[in-house]
Amino acid sequence: MHRFRISSIDQDYFLIDGEELHHLTRVLRLGPGEEILGFDHSGRLWRGAIREINKEQAVCSVIRAEIPETEAKVKVYLIVGLSKGEKMELVIQKGTELGMTGLIPLRTRRSVMKLEGTKAEERVDRWRKIAGEAVKQCGRVIQPAVAPVLDWQDLPAYLPADTQWLIPFEGEKTVSLKACLKSFDPSLPMALIIGPEGGFEPQEVLWAKEKLGAKSISLGSRILRAETAAIAALTIVLAFYGDLG
Amino acid sequence: MHRFRISSIDQDYFLIDGEELHHLTRVLRLGPGEEILGFDHSGRLWRGAIREINKEQAVCSVIRAEIPETEAKVKVYLIVGLSKGEKMELVIQKGTELGMTGLIPLRTRRSVMKLEGTKAEERVDRWRKIAGEAVKQCGRVIQPAVAPVLDWQDLPAYLPADTQWLIPFEGEKTVSLKACLKSFDPSLPMALIIGPEGGFEPQEVLWAKEKLGAKSISLGSRILRAETAAIAALTIVLAFYGDLG
């Protein structure tokens, strides 16, 4: 069944407008009487029937609330060193499908792309749109939040104080991701800090260890590109706790 | 240390030519006396010193054989329904980094792209080149083989008879990938059969079960794009057996 983000809801009706309305009427050519699923950012999902369509909106009557089972139980945030645009877009699309809770773009020392001011805001808007499209495609109902571009010192305040931080680093040869997960509490949030294309500088890893209590981990003997490391690490965490595969 | 595919080797010297020579001389501007790593398709790796460079080749003296630890112990093949070009390229690049043993492009009923004849050969050549570039980037020494484009009936003969086949399918709601892996023998090859963009038709899954003995599995409650499913399933298998993360 087709899914649409709704603009508002009361007890009996929900409304669809804007781009979602365009998609409903022009792309899918749905009309009155047809059943659809509506969702909002809160993670709630409703089955509804289209009652009326005008230029401004589609009015749908609520049939019943549906219980979505598409959200991972473990909360995993990806913190990704700024890399070239298409790599970040890939991570946001795949991360959303796989089940990440949120993503934070991070300015790092070796980030070639330095996003500031309105340019950063525009880029983040674009990334949020990509997350929104991926949410619909994969059947999720909660859109992972894409944070503004942050610096290292902004990280501690941005995520809950009990977050369990992990930083894959090629200088770490002994501790594996899976070994670390065994000692983690799956009821608390986790954050994976992934380097940019050129990797982290050792001082950055040291900072993460000292200020965030992050554990540096190895992803194995092959050198993964930044975007591959992000996708693989997220997959391993979600699969480890039974939220994927 | 920089790594180059070698064209030939005897006991004391190895040679580098063609594009690899271009990369060595023009891109990296290396010269006599510098140490490099040479590898061939057999999985062997040598440390060598450049002795002489001419227009045709670089002659390097062998310092010692190195033992690569970059190959996964478990052999995992990806069999991927033909999807649009850039998706297959992404799977080949990421699959190589992550540690796949080989990839087979498969004609399926819902494959929009139908590759035949010389067009198929050209495309496979391109995919092999992508695998070759990824091998160098990630530090592997064995290049995953990219097979010609095959049809379903070609599969049984193409992989060893004791291959353990898995087919992620959205119609499978109960058996997870991880549950299946618990009963598999990691010393035998595994093959993950991944659908094209539109997914498999149920008859194809039935065929895989009957003719290959494939087990259909679920990757979880979110709908993954074809290329995401390939990358995630491969990651989960390699991580499960300790070959990643």
Properties at a glance:
homodimer, alpha/beta, Ribosomal Protein L25, Chain P, Alpha/beta knot, six-stranded mixed sheet, 7 helices
Structure explained in plain terms:
2 copies of one chain form a homodimer. With 245 residues, the first copy, chain A, is of the alpha/beta class. Chain A folds into 2 domains: 3-66, Ribosomal Protein L25, Chain P (Beta Barrel), CATH 2.40.240.20; 76-240, SPOUT methyltransferase, trefoil knot domain (Alpha/beta knot, 3-Layer(aba) Sandwich), CATH 3.40.1280. Chain A contains 7 helices and 12 strands. Chain A has a 6-stranded mixed β-sheet with strand order 1-4-5-6-3-2. In chain A, strands 9-8-7-11-10-12 form a 6-stranded parallel β-sheet, with helices on both faces. In chain A, helix 2 (85-98) runs parallel beside helix 3 (117-138) and helix 2 runs parallel beside helix 7 (226-240). The relative contact order of chain A is 0.15. The mean pLDDT of chain A is 94. Chains A, B: Residues 71-237 form the Ribosomal RNA small subunit methyltransferase E methyltransferase domain. Chains A, B: Its EC number is 2.1.1.193.
